[in-house]
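F.,

This is the one I mentioned.
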């Protein structure tokens, strides 16, 4: 018995040592890979980004941490950046390492053109690959394969505001309640044909309980006034010219600011509305271009961007006034995220669908339908 116990103990010790040794080796492996990549990136000495304007400011922070890596690129609207990038590639000029912006363009242009490399193989830092640090314990990809188009932002969007002197919150329990005859002529809506309304229209169009019929009736039965200026909409709501607003995110209407000034405006909590609200990445998406000229710098940049440090800088720099992102990292402070953009702690796919998904990316059917409805209301 003594010999058996001794043998068992010996085996157990060897097993534990083996497990710990394997873990240590695994830890050493990522560290060795990372150190080698950083040194190679410093030798490359450059990172080229094509993306929206704010990313130039964000990657100034990256350059502070890695001063040997010069950051250059083109920072403009997604459509303009895509047009330039694809023209360069047709001319066999492979100049870009990373794309950073909304992924509607990423999906409809880069993904369909097959000019992307998979992202998961370049994610090295444990704090990035540890899925417990991310909302829903996963990385959120737009593409069906789940590896080319990565979203790192998931802000809540509420697109129905009201004047508190004209509307009692309890009167509206569903988006359908806006069709009540008492609100006819008292609704202002953001122009659904403009690009800025894309996320909201995807939500309404694809919602099983709202859909095309809801959009049709709002546009043709409510005598809705259409505006292309969200600030103007906020002013009209505050002044009582209209009782309700729809299609425009309340943060872009400055309703948060108005509330702090005692102006009688508010918005409907998604928990109050039967159909909930939606989440969107906005411009918080990234893709890795294939044939990247600075592959190591791109790898370092993506890991930094998705790290706790990178995402904290992202939230801070992209927050302007009452508009700002809510990173999909859940281990960073959220107190500075504007209230109108915060992702609810209990957000789920049923009441808070993520509109950035492959099957919703084609907006042409929505544009065509909206155009038909707007023409119909003019008759």
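My design for it:
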């Amino acid at each position: 018995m003594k010999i058996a116990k001794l043998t068992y103990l010996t085996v157990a010790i060897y097993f534990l040592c083996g497990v710990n040794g394997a873990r240590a080796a695994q830890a050493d492996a990522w560290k060795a890979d990372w150190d080698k990549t950083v040194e190679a990136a410093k030798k490359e000495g450059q990172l080229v980004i094509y993306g929206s304007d704010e990313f130039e400011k964000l990657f100034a922070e990256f350059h502070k941490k890695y001063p040997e890596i010069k950051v250059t690129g083109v920072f403009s609207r997604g459509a303009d950046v895509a047009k330039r990038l694809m023209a360069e590639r047709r001319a066999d000029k492979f100049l870009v390492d990373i794309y950073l912006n909304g992924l509607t363009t990423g999906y409809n242009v880069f993904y369909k053109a097959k000019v992307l490399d998979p992202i998961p193989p370049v994610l090295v830092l444990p704090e990035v690959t540890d899925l417990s640090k991310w909302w829903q314990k996963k990385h959120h990809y737009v593409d069906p394969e789940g590896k080319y188009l990565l979203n790192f932002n998931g802000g809540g969007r509420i697109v129905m505001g009201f004047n508190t002197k004209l509307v009692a919150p309890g009167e509206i329990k569903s988006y359908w309640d806006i069709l009540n005859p008492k609100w006819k002529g008292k609704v202002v809506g953001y122009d659904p044909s403009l690009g800025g309304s894309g996320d909201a229209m995807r939500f309404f169009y694809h919602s099983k309980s709202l859909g095309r019929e809801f959009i049709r009736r709002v546009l043709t039965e409510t005598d809705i006034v259409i505006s292309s200026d969200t600030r103007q909409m906020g002013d009209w709501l505050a002044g009582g010219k209209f009782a309700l607003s729809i299609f425009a995110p309340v943060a872009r209407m400055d309703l948060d600011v108005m509330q702090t000034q005692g102006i009688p405006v508010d918005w409907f909590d998604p928990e109050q509305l039967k159909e909930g609200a939606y989440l969107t990445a906005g411009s918080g998406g990234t893709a890795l271009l294939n044939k990247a000229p600075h592959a190591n710098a791109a790898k370092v940049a993506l890991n930094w961007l998705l790290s706790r440090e990178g995402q904290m800088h992202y939230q801070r720099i992209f927050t302007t006034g009452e508009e700002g992102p809510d990173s999909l990292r859940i281990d960073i402070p959220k107190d500075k995220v504007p209230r109108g953009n915060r992702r609810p702690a209990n957000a789920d796919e049923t009441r808070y669908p993520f509109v950035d998904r492959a099957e919703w990316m084609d907006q042409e059917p929505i544009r065509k339908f909206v155009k038909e409805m707007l023409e119909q209301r003019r008759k």
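Residues 2-44 form the longest helix (43 residues).

Talk soon.
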